[in-house]
Q: What sequence folds into this?
């Protein structure tokens, strides 16, 4: 009888948990950190380095840090003319706190800073829905963001109309300058860069030559030279008293510069598209712009998202170069304030620079994560 | 992608910025040529009238130098150079706030003046013959007598109280500056040996000196006091008395406008005269009632005086200056002297009556 046969099971065996050596944190560590002697050695060296760096850093930045204060005495030891005990070493966040307004707005008048804050709120309110794919009405949102917002921001920030006092651009500074420069650079450079890239691959000799000349000239000159020429040499060629805004000159310089780099990134994408795609589009009878807009560019741009974002991030950080033409982006304002004798102490420069680095990192990391998100979302095949 | 191209970024001490000689000649050549072309246009317009029409003075200052021009917590400019701009504005408008500041890097400063972007330059600029002639500037006076000095670590070099005892020392210096050349000249002239420890950027020099990689730090003396504030044990460090180069720092205007030149020059003399006569921000109103004929002349309370109007200003111009910023001594002490963290002694910047070099021709 079959039911008497002891070794036939009538029900499925329950799944057994994996053996201990294959699961849990210990197994994970064995697999990832101590798989072989070399890995183990590397892990130990790494841990030692972390143990050497982290606690002092934590002590400096948090435990010993001076959070409040009105001048350098709060961030200097007794021997240095301050109130801290000898041998003290901690971050001087009081300096960052006292100068925070300047770091954000530069010397934008105190009573008018609400205008900058309003622009920032509008910027975020329009940018966030634009970045989230699920939110509807992308078209309207894009029009508001790329066309309406710049105009409104221009009048709000510059003023001089609707009873708003005029604020000259030399008073701008800090994060305001960093974000304005990089936002305009990003918004201008992508379309211009795409056009330049298409122009460079065009079969029309004049268009092609002009694009090649522009790209190669701009790429062949350091940004610092472009800014310096615009700021120092240009006024000498203009009649006395005629000058146009230095900030505008920097904006144009940065935008042109980023466009040339963007053009080369996009060209890389265009060249990666197989010829069959172009020929297929042609055989369907699509016009040049239809071919590019519907077939080639969507594939090409998707391929070069990392390159595009890389250019954006590079440009975001390059805005600091406007320091040499005496305009003060975030880093420039931070460094400028090191010269305030009321705050001069051994801890001030490090604290200011760490703060600036943190702000830059937040923005660059944000861009980087978003680009990874977009890559995954747009990844429709070609998985390697 | 280009950050490595940043070469020089001044912070505390962008003082007399002496780039490489070659670069200097090229730049001054270009600027000089450009200045000649621009001088004709600049000369025809009266700067005073332009300034009055604009309603404010546009003044070029440094992008940040402790005690001379630096932003405070509120973002307002403060410092010796900045207060001089305020004094000129006060003399013209009777209001020391009618001034706008243009922060300028060392490379930009002369172009900005020549192109008319600013009305005057008050940016710790060393007065040299080349700048007075080839660059088309007129220096109005010396608001601060500076010079290259030495700071030593007294713990590492005990008993040293003169630069002549520094033979064999390791000296930290910024490379590519005239500071470096002056240093070489000085040690050679005094037949002393030294080992230079050179760095590209001032921050690096500061850090190396603080870390004890060299015994001696050399740069302009006013800067040494600013650097001392950033050292971990400032009391161990001594600024030696020797000055090995002359760096007379003063405001400058464009050539070709004598009226404007006189105004800026006499604002400087007015500051000095006020100190000499004991006129201060606090007592200037009482002083107006003084019977002393010299004080009456200076403050414009004498009957039928034309001293101020001849200058193109109101007769109460000195009153306005002193009300706005105080006299020269007050400006000095507040920004770089005992009233500031820098605590620089008056030294040769004292009045001539006190053994210094600050001397004003009579106001009469």
A:
């Amino acid at each position: 009888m079959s039911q008497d046969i002891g070794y036939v099971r009538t029900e499925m065996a329950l799944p057994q948990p994996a053996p201990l050596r294959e699961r849990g944190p210990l197994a994970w560590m064995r697999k990832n950190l101590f798989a072989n002697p070399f890995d183990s050695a590397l892990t130990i060296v790494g841990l030692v380095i972390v143990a050497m760096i982290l606690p002092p850093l934590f002590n400096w930045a948090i435990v010993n840090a001076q959070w409040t204060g009105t001048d350098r005495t709060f961030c200097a030891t007794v021997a240095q003319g301050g109130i801290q005990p000898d041998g003290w070493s901690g971050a001087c966040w009081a300096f960052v706190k006292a100068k925070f307004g300047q770091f954000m707005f530069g010397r934008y008048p105190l009573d008018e800073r609400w205008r900058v804050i309003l622009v920032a709120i509008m910027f975020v309110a329009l940018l966030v829905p634009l970045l989230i794919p699920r939110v509807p009405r992308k078209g309207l949102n894009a029009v508001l963001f790329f066309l309406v917002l710049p105009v409104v921001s221009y009048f709000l920030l510059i003023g001089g109309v609707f009873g708003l006092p005029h604020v000259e651009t030399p008073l701008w500074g800090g994060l305001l300058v960093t974000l304005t420069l990089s936002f305009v650079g990003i918004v201008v450079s992508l379309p211009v860069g795409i056009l330049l890239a298409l122009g460079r691959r065009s079969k029309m000799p004049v268009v092609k030559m002009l694009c090649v000349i522009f790209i190669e000239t701009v790429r062949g000159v350091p940004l610092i030279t472009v800014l310096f020429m615009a700021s120092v040499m240009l006024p000498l060629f203009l009649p006395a008293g005629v000058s146009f805004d230095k900030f505008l000159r920097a904006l144009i310089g940065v935008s042109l510069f980023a466009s040339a780099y963007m053009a080369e990134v996009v060209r890389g994408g265009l060249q990666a598209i197989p010829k069959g795609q172009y020929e297929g589009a042609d055989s369907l009878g699509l016009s040049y712009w239809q071919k590019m807009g519907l077939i080639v560019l969507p594939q090409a741009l998707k391929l070069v998202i990392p390159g595009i974002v890389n250019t954006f991030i590079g440009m975001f950080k390059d805005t600091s170069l406007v320091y040499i033409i005496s305009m003060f982006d975030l880093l420039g304002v931070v460094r400028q304030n090191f010269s305030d004798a009321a705050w001069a102490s051994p801890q001030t420069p490090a604290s200011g620079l760490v703060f600036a680095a943190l702000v830059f990192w937040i923005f660059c990391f944000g861009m980087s994560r978003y680009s990874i998100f977009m890559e995954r979302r747009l990844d429709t095949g070609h998985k390697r | 992608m280009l950050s490595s191209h940043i070469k020089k970024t001044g912070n505390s001490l962008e003082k007399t910025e002496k780039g490489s000689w070659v670069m200097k000649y090229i730049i001054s050549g270009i600027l000089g040529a450009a200045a000649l072309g621009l001088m004709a246009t600049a000369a025809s317009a009266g700067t005073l009238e332009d300034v009055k029409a604009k309603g404010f003075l546009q003044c070029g200052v440094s992008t940040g130098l402790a005690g001379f021009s630096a932003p405070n917590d509120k973002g307002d400019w403060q410092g010796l150079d900045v207060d001089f701009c305020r004094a000129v504005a006060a003399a013209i408008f009777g209001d020391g706030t009618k001034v706008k500041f243009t922060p300028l890097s060392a490379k930009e400063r002369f172009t900005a003046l020549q192109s008319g972007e600013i009305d005057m330059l008050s940016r710790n600029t060393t007065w040299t013959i080349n700048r007075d002639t080839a660059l088309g500037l007129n220096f109005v006076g010396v608001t601060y007598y500076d010079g290259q000095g030495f700071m030593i670590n007294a713990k590492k070099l005990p008993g040293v109280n003169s630069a002549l005892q520094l033979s064999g020392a390791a000296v930290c210096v910024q490379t590519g500056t005239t500071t470096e050349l002056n240093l070489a000249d000085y040690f050679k002239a005094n037949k002393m040996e030294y080992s230079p420890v050179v760095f590209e950027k001032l921050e690096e020099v500061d850090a190396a000196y603080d870390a004890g990689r060299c015994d001696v730090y050399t740069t302009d003396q006013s800067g040494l006091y600013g650097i001392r504030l950033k050292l971990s044990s400032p009391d161990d460090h001594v600024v030696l008395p020797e000055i090995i180069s002359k760096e007379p720092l003063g405001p400058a205007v464009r050539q070709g406008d004598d009226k404007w030149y006189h105004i800026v020059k006499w604002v400087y003399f007015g500051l000095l005269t006020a100190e000499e006569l004991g006129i201060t921000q606090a007592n200037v109103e009482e002083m107006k009632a003084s019977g002393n004929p010299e004080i009456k002349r200076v403050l414009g309370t004498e009957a039928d005086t034309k001293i101020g109007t001849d200058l193109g200003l109101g007769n109460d111009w000195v009153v306005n200056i002193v009300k706005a910023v105080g006299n020269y001594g007050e400006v000095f002490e507040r920004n770089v002297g005992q009233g500031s963290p820098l605590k620089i002694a008056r030294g040769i910047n004292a009045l001539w009556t006190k053994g210094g070099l600050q001397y004003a021709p009579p106001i009469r």
